[in-house]
Each structure stands twice: as C-alpha cells, then as structure tokens.
Amino acid sequence: MRLTAMTDYAMRLLMYVGEHPERLCTIAEIAQAHGISEPHLMKITHRLAQKGWLETVRGKNGGMRLARPAQEMRLGSIVRDTENDMALIECFLPDSRCALTGRCRLTHIIDQALQDFLLRLDQYTLADILAQPGDGLALPACAEEDQTISQRTVIGWARKV
C-alpha cells in the first residue's frame, strides 16, 4: 500500500500548522518550508477545510489554523479523508472484472489488512507526531523571523536537555 502525495502533503501541512498554534500560517510559507507548489497546497488546504481539519481566514492577514485541538485529530481519519481511492486491489472496485470476484479469499484478507492499518493509525493523533521541545524534530521554518525564533527556541531546549 502506498499513500498518495495528497495524504503526505496534508500530513505535512497539518503538522506545520499544528506547530504554530499561536498564529495563522500561510500557504506560501508552508510551500516554501516543504518545497511543495502553492497551487497543490491550495487544493489540499481547501479539502482539509471542507473536511473540518482546518479553519481558514481570508484576506491580507489571512491564513489557516487547526479547526480543533491536535489531540482530537486521529491520523486514521485524516488518511480516510485525504485518500481518494482505498481500493488496494481491483476486486475492491465496484466494476471489478476479476474472474475470482465473489470466490476469492484474498480479498477479505487484504481488506482486513487495510482496516487494521487504519485502526492502527486511529490510535495516534496529530499531537503525537508534532515536534516536542528537545526532541530534535522541529519542522523547517521559512520566514527569517520564524527561523530566528526557532533557532533561539532550539538552543534553549538544547540547554535544558
């Protein structure tokens, strides 16, 4: 199984926004920080907002923030909302032409594996994957101001450890 770029980028976007709860984040800064095109991020932002993961604010000083606390955002639910096609094999499709459809035991096993995968992801929240002070997992910052704050913060965390 391979998750789409949409899901990968959606997770990166949510992580970035989750690590900056004190302010609105912009598509431009996230695009710069992660090397993702702005038009692609616009599409992802729109989808995440429609599904209730993000709250967006229009205008000159607009941007986005998490629509609810990170500890309430289950990773499995995010994957379900961002993956367009969870059909791992042809027989999962409504118009399957597989000669074994209805008689194959493999379909059930693969479906169960998919459900197990999603249930495992449901055990974790966005809060679980956000960088914590001192863990060395800080996400890239892009604005000079953000970099200065991040460098000071990382240095401060390093001294505490």
Automatic annotation (TrEMBL):
Show the taxonomic lineage.
Bacteria, Pseudomonadati, Pseudomonadota, Betaproteobacteria, Burkholderiales
NCBIfam families in the record: rrf2_super
Which residues are in coiled coils? none
A GO cellular component annotation here is: cytosol
| PROSITE patterns per UniProt | HTH_RRF2_2
* Keyword list, A-Z: DNA-binding
| Matches recorded under InterPro entries | Tscrpt_reg_Rrf2, WH-like_DNA-bd_sf, WH_DNA-bd_sf
Residues spanning the signal sequence = none
SUPFAM superfamilies to which the protein is assigned, alphabetical? Winged helix' DNA-binding domain
Tell me, what is one Gene Ontology molecular-function annotation carried by this entry?
A: DNA-binding transcription factor activity
Q: Which domain of life is it from?
A: Bacteria
In Swiss-Prot or TrEMBL terms, this protein is called BadM/Rrf2 family transcriptional regulator
Pfam families annotated for this entry?
Answer: Rrf2
